[in-house]
Amino acid sequence: MNPFSLVRLSTLSEVSARMAQAPETRRLRAGGIDLIDRLKEGLEAPDELVELRAVAGDDGARMTGLAERKGGWSIGSLVTLAQLASFADFARPFAAIREAAASAATPGIRNAATAGGNLLQRPRCWYYRHVDLICLKKGGAQCFALTGDNRYHAILGGGPSFIVHPSTLALALLAHDASVVVFSPKGERTIAIADLFVPPSVDPSREHALAPGDIMVTIELPPASAAQRSTYLAVKEKQSHDWPLGEVAVRASVTGGKLSGVRVALGHVAPIPWRSGEAEAVLEGQAPSAELFARAAQAALSKAKPLEHNGYKIPLVEGLLRQALHSICEVPLPE
Ligand SMILES: Cc1cc2nc3c(=O)[nH]c(=O)nc-3n(C[C@H](O)[C@H](O)[C@H](O)COP(=O)(O)OP(=O)(O)OC[C@H]3O[C@@H](n4cnc5c(N)ncnc54)[C@H](O)[C@@H]3O)c2cc1C
Prior knowledge:
Elements: E1 5-7, H1 12-20, E2 26-29, H2 33-40, E3 48-51, H3 57-64, E4 66-69, E5 72-76, H4 81-85, H5 95-103, H6 107-112, H7 115-120, H8 168-175, E6 179-184, E7 187-192, H9 193-196, E8 215-221, E9 228-235, E10 246-255, E11 258-267, E12 274-275, H10 277-283, H11 290-300, H12 313-329
Parallel strand pairs: 1-3, 2-3
Antiparallel strand pairs: 4-5, 5-8, 6-7, 6-8, 9-10, 10-11, 11-12
Helix pairs in contact: 5-8, 10-11, 11-12
The structure holds flavin-adenine dinucleotide (FAD).
């Protein structure tokens, strides 16, 4: 790892202005879990790390705060996954947020990893993470996953790169129609979580829409009715510490015996957190039943195009989605 200096600035304006200058020589550090991995792996060698946690005053309070706002929540970008996982005030309407945070990584990592850093971590594809392999994401000519060992790669929305999006929290936030507030030298703006992530068909070299000097300040969860339910489920090879093989987050309300406001998000199947319009169309306005959930699960994966080694993800994610729908609608699972 190359030597670097650590810079501590106390205002967002100073951090943002510094990050906008010669951005290839600097990196912003939140919890540092992904960033330090990238430095140790030799993927990046910045001269300087700018410590986001040094920001003080009102902006520091916003970035570390968790505040109720008109029935929704404002989550500071520096709130840790451990804080989210144990936040008892996230009542049943927001359960998926707590469950996703509790599922990511290990207890030790969750104590340091921040919500903002989790959303903006880089992919774990073993070809991308190998310093000697110049894959498509690093300016090379091809995505090695297309013909290589692609057991963990995308089955939906892939091409020209077949990475899967790594953030567990992103999936739950997508199911909740969350947005992020971003500070830049030009002022603050709000980006819907669905627009934060950039598919490889648009630009294979990056995963999100933030530019140098953009700092994520908060994540905003819109208000929910008391009838809303959500949940997050994942399957991993090692339950104790691993990225998922497949994951789902669902949100819906059941009022008058019918489903409404349905959101279905699928993870570790696509280069971006994947919203399934097909499943939502099957479910919206219908009465919950095992038969309906089975049809929705089939619809969710109907456009999947597995690579040579990852066809197992189709039944895995279908099963997870059915289980999640049974859970939030309190319909017993069939024997
Ligand atoms: C063994 C292991 C298992 C794991 N399992 C999972 C898992 O199951 N699910 C999962 O989601 N993750 C998993 N992770 C990844 C881990 O959760 C992430 O690395 C961590 O959440 C990143 O957060 P951080 O605060 O440390 O980010 P950092 O490493 O500090 O930052 C990540 C990136 O985001 C940028 N950044 C951070 N904050 C901001 C901000 N506010 N504004 C603008 N840019 C910012 C940084 O510059 C950097 O490029 C695992 C990690 C390990 C080691």
